[in-house]
Amino acid sequence: MGDENFTSVKEFIEFILLGLTSHPKTWLLLFVTVLLIYLFTIFENTLIIILVWVDSQLHIPMYFFLSHLAGMEIGYVTSTLPQMLSHLLNGNGVISLACCILQAYMTLAMGSTECLLLGAMAYDRYLAICHPLVYALAMDRLHQLLLATFCWTVGFVFSAIYVLCTFRHPFCGIVINHFICEPPVVLKLACGDTRITKVIGFGLSTFIVLVPLFVILTSYGYILNSVLHMRSTGGWQKAFSTCGSHLAVVILFYGTIISMYIAPQSDSNPDRDKKIAVFYLIIIPLLNPIIYTLRNKDIHLAALKILIKLQRYLSTL
């Protein structure tokens, strides 16, 4: 590429996001669908946070981490879906460089934190089921706070490094075949040698994804072994009901994240990235609260208490 073209493209301060589809006739349907998903995701995750905060019966480590996961999911969808809704409504996918960098950072930070939080939740279940006698001491309030702080801090630091490495390059194009600014997709537009950036991104992604995944698989290996030695049928049911929902989330989330950030990418399917991203950016944040609370009697009881208190309050008005 000649010097003139390189300079003119490098100095662009806006990108164009192509979105999920280029067919204007489907934009309104997508707008309504995504809006409903966004509102319901915010509602259900906010409800979990309120229930855990209000009900003293839920002041235990499992629900402490679940409330952090719910807060992270709210930040996750809020960093992506409102802009996506705006683009669908206006039919214009233009995004400034500053907004693109901010969105890439927040999305990656929330996703990285979720990877680590899921690992922390698995470790919590391992201690509760395999080492119940030392559980209260090993997972006291201080250790809960330290573990949660570690997840948030590492997630945000990791994302800062990844995003800085990605956007330090000049860009030879402005059209992003995605509905958000995601580092691996943006990096495809970079000029010059990006091999070092790709190696750094791969190394960071491998750590942030595979280390928690190893913790999860190891924890559930021990849990499974412990459950198989239980004589009580009730113990079996309690263990599987507690851990089954977590494993469902792990399979959904880690499978799509690995295929996006770690598995080799092919140029034969240009829409592959955004199709994968739909799962971990839209579908999974919607399903997480449902999966965790669908068969959770503690959450159901806490919600019932809130409804009864609300009904009594309204009756006094």
Write up what this structure looks like.
- The chain has helices at 3-10, 27-54, 61-78, 81-90, 97-130, 132-138, 141-167, 183-186, 195-228, 233-261, 272-293, 297-315, and strands at 14-17, 94-96, 175-176.
- It is mostly helical and 317 residues long.
- It has a 3-stranded mixed sheet with strand order 2-1-3.
- Residues 44-292 form the G-protein coupled receptors family 1 profile domain.
- The chain crosses the membrane at residues 27-54, 60-77, 89-110, 145-164, 199-223, 244-264, 276-294.
- Keywords: Cell membrane, G-protein coupled receptor, Glycoprotein, Membrane, Olfaction, Receptor, Sensory transduction, Transducer, Transmembrane, Transmembrane helix.
Q: In whole angstroms, how far apart are the ends?
A: 73 Å
Query: Helical segment tally?
Result: 12
Low-confidence stretches: 1-11
Rg value: 22 Å
**Overall pLDDT:** 85
Counted beta strands: 3
Structural category: mainly alpha
- Portion in strands: under 5%
Shape: globular
Percent of residues in helices comes to: over 70%
Q: For the largest beta sheet, what order do the strands appear in spatially?
A: 2-1-3
Order of helices and strands: HEHHHEHHHEHHHHH
Largest sheet: 3 strands, mixed
